[in-house]
Design a protein that fits this description.
Elements (H helix, E strand, L loop, with lengths): L1 H7 L4 H5 L16 H4 L6 E3 L5 E7 L2 E6 L2 E6 L7 E7 L6 E5 L2 E5 L5 E5 L7 E6 L7 E5 L2 E5 L5 E5 L7 E6 L4 E7 L2 E6 L4 E6 L7 E7 L2 E9 L2 E10 L4 H4 L5 E6 L7 E7 L12 E5 L2 E5 L5 E5 L7 E6 L3 E3 L5 E3 L2 E7 L2 E6 L3 E6 L28 E4 L7 E5 L2 E5 L5 E7 L2 E8 L6 E5 L2 E5 L5 E6 L5 E6 L11 E4 L5 E5 L5 E5 L7 E6 L10 E6 L3 E5 L5 E5 L6 E6 L10 E4 L2 E6 L2 E5 L12 E2 L8 E5 L2 E6 L4 E6 L7 E9 L8 E3 L2 E5 L5 E4 L1
Antiparallel strand pairs: 1-30, 2-3, 3-4, 4-5, 6-7, 7-8, 8-9, 10-11, 11-12, 12-13, 14-15, 15-16, 16-17, 18-19, 19-20, 20-21, 22-23, 23-24, 24-25, 26-27, 28-29, 29-30, 31-58, 32-33, 33-34, 34-35, 36-37, 37-38, 38-39, 40-41, 41-42, 42-43, 44-45, 45-46, 46-47, 48-49, 49-50, 50-51, 52-53, 53-54, ...
């Protein structure tokens, strides 16, 4: 349960993204008025997972995610679901979509699982696809899965061969949480921006964004059928005074989609106000003229929408109470719903699976709309100003030493290339199952190898590698995805992009031992650690919305020496060492902190670079390059005067894929560019 809470519930992500109104936990939860919401109906537990996430009903089969597994129930008798199949080892599953015989499971840091459910009694894993970012939601139609990646948008994945899924495209939306496919279009609920995006999927290799339409509150679960759109919203209202907005975004929007370029809101049905950090998901399904909306801790509301301009509450459901982090108890959060024959199935993030008998409810009428058609791939295009190397997989990271670059290319393994004035020359490929990140120190290569943990290799001539040792696998399905090697110490630090930094002693590669772990607040989405010693002993980490932490590595084991627990940076702004100071990018400006400098941050001086300074910094002498994964922008700044940095305008690029942390080679940029490969500045 602890691992699920850490990865699936998002911890304090709201604190980072939802504005000042989200900073205070609302410990009150209102009892829905029967006059407004109808009577509270009883629910009954279904034997199965201890905790549960998303679900989907297809025919007489109910597919449920929970307890790091896929559970399959036969619901031929709707009131007596009978478990007939189960597949364990699907860690952190959050949402599920069925397409043909494939179950597509969005699993946050674990990417996209594809499971063969052609025999529901014996499901088996086809594959696991490395999504560009944390897979938060998923929809599917025919040969395409649509993965919601929050601030990165929607990634289209070719699942026509579910054993060999392939990246098709990435389309930026404001903050994709969940999506719904209908008749050639994808409807996307955007979280803090309070909006719904509509994408035209005539060509899933190049989806067209038709509009971003405002919703009444924070966006998540959406669906569409014909010209009717439904959006379940939560947290804070989009408009009004701060007092009126706070916690008042909960409800159901009914939207006219007849013109997808210009939707129109028909009505909004309010749910009781409530706010809780984490559990930030809301879902909507339709049964005839009854909308069924899950509103996290508020429960499930059944709304009669036969008069679309005047919806009316007819009944509501609530899960059992569980302890609240703010004290006392509150109903468990609803994580999934599915209408069946005279029944609604619902799941709780801490309490498992339930059903409510509701006469008249029927399964969703899934229209038989044509799925997207994937056209042939265009020839690989070059990137002006750069040499390109296609690694055949997602290039997440690269390490440069001398004239050699080692490339972590996800499921395509470790690639070794030579950098030259004439381009990038391949030397060797090492086909490990997963390679997410890599670093070079002296004559050793350190690789974050996903499920296989941290690997250490001896570097041999001409790109050859000899394995020296591996760490133990990370716990509970975590994937080693980021690695930092601290020069001058025996330590390498590993992150699974969840909520824990793991420090390993790698002085004896055949006996790698974990010696220290640290958690602060929030998740480690990306490259947020400064891995160069300051004052001979300190490194620092940006804990996303949870502030800064300093570590002293000079003793027998790492020690946390200073914690600045404030809302400082987001998860896209990093740290670097610059002339003995810690360069910290902070809300478009930068600070230069002394080693182990304490807070509060209001005592720090911040400087401007003449334009917003965002991203993960890399230092090369007096030059600093920044890469911003969400916007695709890479920029170079002149820090000759550290107190007045200036942008180098001719070295600013906008890419259509997310760049990783850049490196320098003889002053030129080396850029890991996801599925576009590795770039070398000409």
């Amino acid at each position: 349960m602890r691992e699920f809470n850490r990865i699936f519930l998002f911890g304090t992500l709201l604190f980072a993204l939802s504005g000042n109104a989200a900073a205070v936990e609302d410990t009150r939860i209102l009892v829905p008025s029967p006059d407004l919401y109808g009577p509270r109906l009883p629910i009954r537990r279904i034997a199965g997972p201890r905790w549960a996430a998303g679900m989907e009903l297809r025919g007489n089969l109910l597919y449920v995610l929970g307890s790091h597994a896929l559970w399959i129930y036969d619901v031929t008798n709707p009131l007596e679901p009978r478990q007939i199949g189960k597949l364990d080892g699907l860690f952190n599953g959050r949402q599920i979509a069925i397409s043909g015989s494939a179950a597509c499971i969005a699993a946050r840091a674990n990417g996209l699982y594809l499971v063969d459910v052609s025999d529901p009694r014996h499901p088996r894993q086809f594959s696991r696809f490395d999504t560009i970012e944390l897979a938060t939601g998923v929809a599917a139609a025919g040969p395409v899965a649509f993965v919601s990646l929050r601030v990165y948008g929607i990634e289209c994945v070719d699942i026509s061969d579910p054993a060999q899924p392939r990246h098709l495209s990435l389309t930026k939306t404001p903050e994709a949480q969940s999506s719904w496919y209908d008749a050639g279009k994808l409807y996307v609920g955007n979280w803090a921006p309070c909006s719904m995006s509509i994408l035209d999927l005539a060509n899933p290799r190049t989806p067209e964004l038709l509009c971003n339409y405002p919703l009444s509150g924070y966006g998540d679960g959406v669906m569409a059928t014909g010209s009717l759109g439904l959006a379940s919203t939560g947290h804070h209202a989009r408009i009004g005074s701060p007092e009126k907005r706070k916690n008042n975004g909960h409800g159901l929007d009914l939207i006219d989609l007849a013109n997808p370029l210009h939707p129109k809101t028909l009505s909004h049905f309010h749910f009781p106000p409530y706010f809780s950090r984490g559990n930030d998901f809301w879902t909507v399904r339709l049964s005839g003229n009854t909308a069924i909306a899950a509103d996290s801790h508020n429960g499930v509301f059944l709304v009669d929408i036969s008069d679309r301009r005047n919806p009316k509450g007819v009944a509501h459901l609530r899960l059992p109470e569980v302890p609240s982090p703010a004290g006392g108890v509150r109903p468990d959060a609803v994580s999934g719903i599915a209408p069946g024959n005279n029944v609604v199935y619902l799941s709780g993030v801490r309490t498992g699976l339930f059903l409510a008998e509701i006469p008249g409810i029927q399964p969703m009428n899934m229209p038989d709309t044509p799925p997207p058609v994937i056209p042939p791939a265009a020839s690989t295009s070059s990137v002006p100003g750069f040499f390109c190397y296609d690694a055949g997989g997602q290039v997440r990271g690269a390490a440069v030493s001398g004239n050699i670059a080692w490339i972590a290319a996800s499921h395509a393994g470790i690639h070794v290339v030579r950098l030259t004035d004439d381009g990038i020359k391949p030397l060797a490929v090492h086909p490990v199952p997963e390679a997410y990140d890599c670093k070079v120190s002296d004559d050793r290569l350190y690789v974050a190898e996903g499920a296989n943990g941290l690997a250490v290799y001896q570097i041999l001539p001409e790109g050859k590698l000899a394995l020296l040792g591996r760490s133990q696998k990370l716990p509970s399905g975590e994937l080693a995805q980021l690695v930092w090697v601290i020069q001058g110490t025996p330590y390498a630090v590993v992150s699974a992009r969840t909520g824990t930094l793991r420090f390993f002693n790698v002085s004896q590669p055949n006996k790698i031992t974990q010696v220290f772990t640290h958690r602060q607040i929030s998740l480690l989405y990306g490259d947020l650690l400064c891995d160069r010693l300051l004052d001979g002993k300190y490194i620092a980490n940006n804990w996303h919305s949870g502030g800064l932490a300093w570590y002293d590595l000079s003793g027998s084991r790492p020690v946390v020496t200073n914690r600045v627990v404030e809302r400082l940076n987001g998860h896209l702004d990093g740290l670097a060492a610059l002339d003995g100071k810690l360069l910290m990018l902070n809300q478009g400006r930068y600070a230069l902190l002394s080693p182990n400098q304490p807070g509060p941050s209001k005592t720090w001086k911040r400087y401007s670079a003449g334009e917003p300074l965002r991203g993960t910094p890399t230092v090369d002498g007096t030059m600093v390059a920044t890469s911003h994964r969400s916007t695709g922008k890479v920029s170079v700044y002149d820090f000759s005067n550290p107190l007045a940095a200036k942008p180098v305008r001719q070295r600013s690029w906008q890419f259509d894929a997310p760049p990783g942390t850049v490196s320098f080679w003889h002053g030129r940029l080396v850029i890991p560019l996801s599925y576009r490969g590795l770039l070398l500045e000409r």
